[in-house]
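Appendix C reproduces, verbatim, an entry submitted by the partner laboratory led by Prof. M.T., so that reviewers can inspect both the input and the predicted structure.
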Amino acid sequence: MHPTRAPQDSCPLRSAIRFSWIASALAFTIACFVLSVPQDAPAQASAGITGTITDSSGAVVVDAKVTITNEGTGISARTTTSSAGTYSFKGLTPGKYTVAVDAHGFKKAVQASINVEVSTTSTIDFALTAGAANETVQVTADQVALNTTQPELGSTIEPIVVESLPAEVSGRGRQIDQLQFLAPGTTGSTFSHRISGGVDFEQEIVYNGIPAPQPETEGYTTNFNPPYDLVEESKVERSTFSAQFGLGQGALTYQMKSGTNKYHGELFEINRNSFFDSVGFFNGPAWGGSSTPPTDHENNYGFDIGGPIRIPHVYDGRNRTFGHYSQEWYSRTTRIQTPRRFQQSPRNLGTSAAGLLPPGTTSMTRRPVRFSNTTGSST
């Protein structure tokens, strides 16, 4: 008799085949999705550039070819001037742009480093010079592009301003809607605020050109603010703004980051610890306190990353497809305590103990309080 060979276990082989099939199907689905995106599909935005093309005598130039290029992504768009010599580009994301004008019988005109701000249509006019088409007149744009098409008053909160401000966490992580109070005429709190002396809850909120209405508390966004580092720019519309904003007391528009041709990102951690706090008046020995500061440990941390969407050997999204992702977390641990003097003799103080408790003291005993939340989003 010959010994019977036991059948080999085929489970690892089946698992490997199954995993390979799932990975291939997933890669195929992602590739089909990416390749199906139109090359000229723009991100939703509310900024733009417009202008008039004239010759040296002031006469308008018809059918001139105008090309605009985003200096960060390399994406271009083209149009021609109308019978009035005007051109217009809409749906631009904030950033630096280059505009080039070609017309028969004129030198090519190029204006670079044009700053486009959120919810603003900049006016860039060109006066062409007669000459050969292979000659180029290069112009560097001003730092501020004027808006001469809409009589609106507003304040743009630019990234350089946000990066220069100190960061603070107090009961919540960083909140992007707090920056609106940098604009003149905006008063109150993030819950109830007024613009240019108007009434409460009359501010329209717009994300990437899309309104985000709320019943009863219009303008209050603390519960669904986007991650702090995801916002590219924001603008507070104060008066004489466009009719596209339906409410009568102003608008707050946000434009999210969309990525560029270069990968970029950051890690951050903001720590607030009672180790760095002072004891405070009511926690001192004069009021029977423990001579130690109240426990307050807060951490706001996260990351964000942006750049072109690339699948090795399948798809290269440079100059075509971009993305940006941001995620952050917040946690807090506090310990609330009441000084002994409040606990022992409230009657001898001439008023109720509740009326004398310092702000934030809500209990007569020491108790820990823990709170955490997570916010994430992508564009």
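The chain has a mean pLDDT of 78. Additional entries are available on request from the coordinating office.
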